Amino acid sequence: MDLRRVTPDQITADEFCDLLFGLWSDRGNERYDEVVSQSEHALQCAALAEADGAGPELQIAALLHDVAHLWESEEEFRDTDLVHEVVGARWLTEWFGNAVAAPVALHVAAKRYLVAVEPEYADTLSPASVHSLKLQGGPMNQEEVARFEANKHHADAVRLRRWDDLAKDPEATTSGFEHYREPIRACLTLAPR
Questions:
Q1: Residue 190 in 3-state DSSP?
Q2: Backbone phi and psi for residue 31, each to the nearest 5 degrees, phi listed first
Q3: Domain residues of the chain, as ranges?
Q4: In 3D, which of 35, 51, 68 has the Cα closest to residue 162?
Q5: Which of 88, 128, 139, 189 could form a disulfide with 116 if both were Cys (CB 3.0 to 4.6 A apart)?
Q6: What CATH number labels 12-25+34-187?
Q7: Which ranges carry the HD domain (predicted)?
Q8: Is 50 helix (H, G, I), strand (E, B) or coil?
Q9: Are 169 and 41 in contact (CB under 8 A)?
Q10: Which band of pLDDT confidence, cut at 50, 70 and 90, is reported for residue 163?
Q11: How large is the average pLDDT for residues 160-173?
């Protein structure tokens, strides 16, 4: 069963988790121009959020911020911006609502924002992030910075972005996806069955 074709009124929370974890198992071991796999990156990002004291919604946002990459081939997103943050956030909104989806929708904008307001931040980006920054529009201009800062989710998006940048350590050890079953269950907005 494809999670993109299922709606929240059709499955239970445990069925959702099983399908989600199966997706990561099937597609998450692929690399994407980084030194870690998609799964390692997701789990490291969520672990960093948890260690930083983020609530369950932001931990789930960290875990699933790149979920749309699992629906794309590596070749597709190497030289094209497929707006994975928009695709992923649209899907996450249906399942989790805005508290999870909004930081995901803004995590690319947060990179552009940080490069604009903290010029030294650009030096911390991986080569793949530098490449994608160019595809995503480069640093924000002043008007874009002001609009970004006016968004009530911008601070969470910046936190997510910082974890995203750090979650590329080939030596890091993390808990598996099962560790996030209960937070996911708690955050899901499933219709009663």
A1: coil
A2: -90, 160
A3: 12-25+34-187
A4: 51
A5: 139
A6: 1.10.3210.10
A7: 40-106
A8: helix
A9: no
A10: very high
A11: 93
